[in-house]
């Protein structure tokens, strides 16, 4: 078994040899784009076509949300922006073909260069957390609209290897309303859309982590790093109850020397509620659950969330 230092050195070498890396995102306050499952499926397949048309831009991971997206990619800034430009163009054509009046003028990407191995780890996990922290029905391994579910997940990779379904030339023409992808080979699909294993360099993304357990710790416990990324790019970040409770427990222990937050004095609970609201975007019902406060008390503190 390799030592910690050896594993970390291997990760660092992969980072140094494979960059530059970028985080691309679009505004989270954009009007809804993917309003149903069929549109998400189309978005996934259009992303695949664009990635394969611009292979110099290697997508490490990405997630489509209902109104915005995140992409972590290796390649030059120009190449990555070219790939996104194709995605926006083809998506716009597809939506117009369906008769959907979705204005994509505000669907404008921002790009940030990733400066270190830990920065890349943080961005990958930020991307892969996005869907499940917004929707509690999912986990980082089950949110379907991105590459997240394939990270260190042998069963998901098996579904890709065993799939016999593909996007053929005419399927691609229907999606992008163009012959631009005619030269591409058929694209493997799973569950009715292009499988991320067929167009993302997930193996490269996995090499940035020492092992599967290291990745899982980063996804589930590195909360402060996720908060910093959200602040840097102007997004709100949401936390699951488990994540928020770990924050509450830490504050309760460190600031009040009380290992049971529910036993804090009333004023301490109010102070912590304000901190959770302002610093961690906690919802009123989350604060109620974390601190065992009456919901009417929390609603009085934060009526805009009521």
Features of this protein?
306 residues; alpha+beta; Alpha-Beta Plaits; 4-stranded antiparallel beta sheet; 3-stranded antiparallel beta sheet; 13 helices
Poorly predicted tracts of residues: none
Strand content: 5-15%
How many β-strand runs? 7
Number of helices: 13
- Average residue-wise pLDDT: 90
- Report the radius of gyration as a whole number of Å: 21 Å
Strands side by side in the biggest sheet: 2-3-1-4
CATH architecture of the largest domain: 2-Layer Sandwich
Specify the CATH class of the largest domain.
Answer: Alpha Beta
- Multimerization state: single chain
- The 3D shape can be described as globular
Domain unit count: 2
CATH topology of the largest domain: Alpha-Beta Plaits
Order of helices and strands: HEHEEHEHHEHEEHHHHHHH
Distance between the termini: 53 Å
| Estimated helix fraction | 40-55%
Largest sheet: 4 strands, antiparallel
> How would you classify the helix and strand content by structural class?
alpha+beta
Concise structural overview:
The protein has 306 residues and is an alpha+beta fold.
Structure description:
The chain is of the alpha+beta class and 306 residues long. It has 2 domains: 208 residues, Alpha-Beta Plaits (2-Layer Sandwich); 65 residues. It contains 13 helices and 7 strands. It has a 4-stranded antiparallel β-sheet, sandwiched between helices. The protein starts with a helix and ends in a 5-residue tail after the last helix. The model has no long low-confidence stretch (mean pLDDT 90).
């Amino acid at each position: 078994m390799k030592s910690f230092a050896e594993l970390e050195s291997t990760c660092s070498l992969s980072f140094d040899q494979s960059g530059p890396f970028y985080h691309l995102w679009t505004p989270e306050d954009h009007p809804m784009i993917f309003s149903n499952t069929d549109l998400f499926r189309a978005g996934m397949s259009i992303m695949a076509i664009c990635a394969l048309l611009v292979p110099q831009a290697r997508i490490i991971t990405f997630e489509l949300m209902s109104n915005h997206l995140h992409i972590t990619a290796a390649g030059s800034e120009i190449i990555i922006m070219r790939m996104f430009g194709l995605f926006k163009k083809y998506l716009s054509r597809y939506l117009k073909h369906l008769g959907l009046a979705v204005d994509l003028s505000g669907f404008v990407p921002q790009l940030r260069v990733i400066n270190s191995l830990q920065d890349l780890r943080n961005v990958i996990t930020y991307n892969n957390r996005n869907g499940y922290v917004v929707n509690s029905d999912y986990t980082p391994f089950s949110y379907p609209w991105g590459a997240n579910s394939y990270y260190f997940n042998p069963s998901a990779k098996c579904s890709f290897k065993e799939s016999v379904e593909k996007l053929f030339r005419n399927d691609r023409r229907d999606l992008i309303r163009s012959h631009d992808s005619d030269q591409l080979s058929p694209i493997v699909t799973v569950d009715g859309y292009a499988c991320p294993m067929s167009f993302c360099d997930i193996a490269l993304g996995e090499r940035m982590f020492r092992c599967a357990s290291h990745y899982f710790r980063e996804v589930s416990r590195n909360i402060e790093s996720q908060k910093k990324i959200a602040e840097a790019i102007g997004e709100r970040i949401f936390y699951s109850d488990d994540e928020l409770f770990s924050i509450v427990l830490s504050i309760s222990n460190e600031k009040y020397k009380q290992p049971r937050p529910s036993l804090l004095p009333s004023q301490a609970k109010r102070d912590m509620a304000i901190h959770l609201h302002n610093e961690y975007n906690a919802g009123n019902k989350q604060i109620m659950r974390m601190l065992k406060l009456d919901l009417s008390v929390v609603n009085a503190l934060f009526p805009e969330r009521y």
